[in-house]
Amino acid sequence: DQQVKQNSPSLSVQEGRISILNCDYTNSMFDYFLWYKKYPAEGPTFLISISSIKDKNEDGRFTVFLNKSAKHLSLHIVPSQPGDSAVYFCAASGSAGNMLTFGGGTRLMVKP
Amino acid sequence: DTEVTQTPKHLVMGMTNKKSLKCEQHMGHRAMYWYKQKAKKPPELMFVYSYEKLSINESVPSRFSPECPNSSLLNLHLHALQPEDSALYLCASSQGEITGLEQYFGPGTRLTVT
């Protein structure tokens, strides 16, 4: 049973446009959500996080939105750059300490 | 410094071999983690160490044996592995084990079992 789902395995966006990556979760005990970016042959790199007491967190070009009632979060990247091309994982914790449950990942391709 | 280092980068071992994976962090983090990632899949938690004590073992087979010699080091001892254990093994650390603390990942060790 997947508790964190990323339903889009891939996304292609033109450079300069907005990238929107989506994530859904089922466990209502999750109270902290993170986005990680992963290049091939490297470990995941932490991007941005949000606590369940907030609905938005912004850091430069990256904004994460949380809709608790819908159990949905999204990552917005504006403007998208070719260097953003990577696999993006959303992750959640809270049901049992700091154990992270990851979604399946979305491969983002930003075209020049 | 937010670096977690892992050695070796690549490891090929036979099913009768014994080998160890090493992880090190110097951020003063008190929680360390081992994850396993198969191709095109998300990372899956294997073990959590909190203050150098094993706090979570996600029903991992005994052929994987973790060890935390001190607060900066985490080892994963491997013995009698199977070909299906071939994967990317990721180490991570965080300030503590409570929720809401970012985990920082190392680059991983790519393990191939022949």
3D architecture notes:
- The complex is a heterodimer of chains A (112) and B (114).
- Chain A has strands at residues 4-5, 10-14, 19-25, 32-38, 45-51, 56-59, 62-67, 72-77, 86-93, 101-102, 106-111.
- Chain A is mainly β and 112 residues long.
- The mean pLDDT of chain A is 93.
- Chain B has 114 residues and is mainly β.
- Chain B has strands at residues 4-7, 10-13, 18-25, 31-37, 44-50, 53-57, 64-70, 73-79, 87-94, 104-105, 109-113.
- Chain B is globular, with a radius of gyration of 13 Å.
- The chains are: A mainly beta (112), B mainly beta (114).
- The A-B interface holds A 31-32, 34, 36, 41-46, 49, 51, 89, 93-94, 96-100, 102-105 and B 4, 6, 31, 40-45, 48, 55-56, 90, 92, 94, 96-108, 110.
How many H/I helical runs of chain B? 0
The major pleated sheet of chain A works out as: 6 strands, mixed
β-strand amount of chain B? over 45%
Low-confidence stretches of chain A are none
Topology, element by element:
The complex is a heterodimer of chains A (112) and B (114).
Chain A: E1 4-5, E2 10-14, E3 19-25, E4 32-38, E5 45-51, E6 56-59, E7 62-67, E8 72-77, E9 86-93, E10 101-102, E11 106-111
Parallel strand pairs in A: 2-11
Antiparallel strand pairs in A: 1-3, 3-8, 4-5, 4-9, 6-7, 7-8, 9-10, 9-11
Chain B: E1 4-7, E2 10-13, E3 18-25, E4 31-37, E5 44-50, E6 53-57, E7 64-70, E8 73-79, E9 87-94, E10 104-105, E11 109-113
Parallel strand pairs in B: 2-11
Antiparallel strand pairs in B: 1-3, 3-8, 4-5, 4-9, 5-6, 7-8, 9-10, 9-11
